[in-house]
Amino acid sequence: MALRVNGSHSINRLRSVMDRLFDSAFEGYPQLTRDVWFAPTFPAVNVWEDTDNVYAEAELPGLKLDDIELLVMGDELTIKGERKDVCEDEVSYHRKERDAGYFNRVFRLPVGVDAEKVEATLRDGVLTVTMPKADEAKPRKIEVKTFPK
Amino acid sequence: MTTMAIEKPAEREIARTELTWNRPQFRPNVDIVERPDELTVLADMPGTSAEDVNIQFENGTLTLHGKVKDRDPQETGCVLQEYGVGDFHRTFQVSEIIDTARISAEYEDGVLILHLPKTEAVKPRKIAVKTD
Q1: Which residue, of A22, A56, A76, A145, has the greatest Cβ tally within 10 A?
Q2: B56-103, pLDDT tens digit by residue?
Q3: Contact A45 B82 (CB under 8 A)
C-alpha cells in the first residue's frame, strides 16, 4: 500500500494515521494468513528530508543485507524481504513476540530521487537509506531581470 | 480472536520501571525458547551495541537494558515518523532451575541472544536399560 505523505501539513499526518488505523483494523481477521497480518506495519519506518536528500530509516533486527530488497523508482521506495524464525522446530516457546514472515512496504516520497545514487547501510539491525533528490526536484533560484527604462 | 491478532508489530510498549534520565524507553519484543539444556532468550534491540547492553542478575530477577544513541535527525524536515528511538529495558523473574553462573549473551544484527543454562539436576537424562 502506498502512503502519500507530504511533510508538515497536519491534515496529511491525520490521513496517514487513519490509513494505519484501518490497516490494523483489518489485521485481526482469522481467515487471513499470518503473513498478510504482518505485511502492512512491519517494519516501522521513519522518513525525513533536508535540502539535498531524502532519508528513510527502518528497524530490522535479525536481518542481514541479503534478506532485504530495496527498490527505488522515481518517487517510490519499496522495502521488502523475509524475516525467518531462527529456531528449529522441536523447541517449545515460553513466549513468542518477535514475528517472522514476509514484509513489503511501499512509500511515496515527497520528491523524486535519483535512483542511481541511493545508498543504504544496515548496522545493528537499523537500515538507513540515503536518497539524493533528483535535480529537477531541488529548488532552483530564478533570477528576476528588470527591463531597462 | 486471540490477543496476538490485535497486537500491532510496529507498536512498542513503554518500559515499566523508569530510569532517572528522562529518555524514552521501550520494551523489546522477546522470544523465550526452551531447549533441553538451556533457556534461550532472543530480544529485538536494534541500534545498540555489545558494549552498551547491560545485563544484570540479582535475586532471581534478570534485567536487560540496552542504551541506544540518539539517531533522530536534527534540523531536517520530518516526512513520516512511525517509531521513536530510545533505550530498551525489560525485566524477568528467573526460576531456580537456571545455573546463574553460566549465563552468557551475544549481540548480533540488533538481536540480543541470552543463554540461560539449566542446572544439571533438571536436564533430561537418558537412562540406559540394562538387560541380563
Answers
A1: A56
A2: 888 778 899 999 988 876 667 888 888 888 889 999 887 767 888 888
A3: yes
DSSP-derived secondary structure letter, B98:
B
Peptide bond into B24 cis (omega under 30): no
Q: Which pTM does this prediction carry?
A: 0.70
Q: How far is CA B20 from the centre of its chain?
A: 21
Q: Measuring CA to CA, which residue among B83, B110, B92 is closest to residue B24?
A: B83
Q: Where are the alpha helices (DSSP H) in chain A?
A: 10-25, 34-38
**CB neighbours of residue A85 within 10 Å:** 14
- Which residues form the domain of B79? 22-120
For cell 496476538, what's the residue?
A: B4
Identify the architecture of domain A2-86+98-137 in CATH.
Answer: Sandwich (2.60)
Task: Count up the domains in chain B and report the number.
Answer: 1
Confidence check: pLDDT of B111 > 90: yes
Please tell me which residue of chain B has the smallest CA distance to A99: B9
Q: How far from the centroid of its chain's Cα atoms is residue A23's Cα?
A: 15
Residue B73: CATH number of its domain: 2.60.40.790
Spell out which residues of chain B touch residue A22, defining contact as CB-CB under 8 Å. none
Region of B34 on the Ramachandran plot (φ > 0 left; ψ -120 to 50 alpha; else beta):
beta
Domain membership of residue B12 (yes or no) is: no
Is residue A34 scored above 50 in pLDDT?
A: no
